[in-house]
Amino acid sequence: MKVAPPMENAGSELPVVTFVRLEHYNGIRLVQSIHASLAALSKVIRGTILLNKETRTLATSLLQHETPTQWQKKWEGPDDPLQYLRSVMSRALAIQKWLQKTESESLLQDTLDLSELFHPDTFLNALRQQSARKLNLKYQKHFYDKHYGKLNLKYQKHFYDKRYGKLNLKYQKHFYDKHYGKLNLKYQKHFYNPEVSKTLGIQASRQKET
């Protein structure tokens, strides 16, 4: 049975959904690969095909009660071949249930057993990305207007005047005098006093002369 890889939805699919689809696809491919190697070994034993290097290595590992290296390269599991096969089949069956729950959007509503996955660490990364994406959108709703694809000026009213497309000088009255286009010394009286500056300037010049 040929299994087509999951189609990409141009980034619109949630990370957890993408992970489950890939995990299901890779699980089926792993089962098919193991089945093909055992079928080849069976044919060699029955004398229908000739022994090759790959089948010899597989048979040697099984006779030594070791999981073949070619299987471990596809998914790293138990060293005992029987335990390996049980683990693969249990996960392959479990991921089908995960896929069904994903399609019904009920996966994250139930208690999840990560031992049912081939790659639980990858699932946690996908879940983290999905959670971060949702939280980011939640806290950005006051700054981003999805209808216009630009910053929502409603929430920037104290900093940006959308009517003129420039900084709203009304909210900068303590720093900028819009009538004269220069710093409003009235609101800087605690930092700058022109009279004191003149006095200090005179005193400084007198000190230089002496």
TrEMBL record:
InterPro entries: DHC, Dynein_C. It comes from the Eukaryota. Residues 10-140 form the Dynein heavy chain C-terminal domain. This is Cytoplasmic dynein 2 heavy chain 1-like. The gene is LOC111083040.
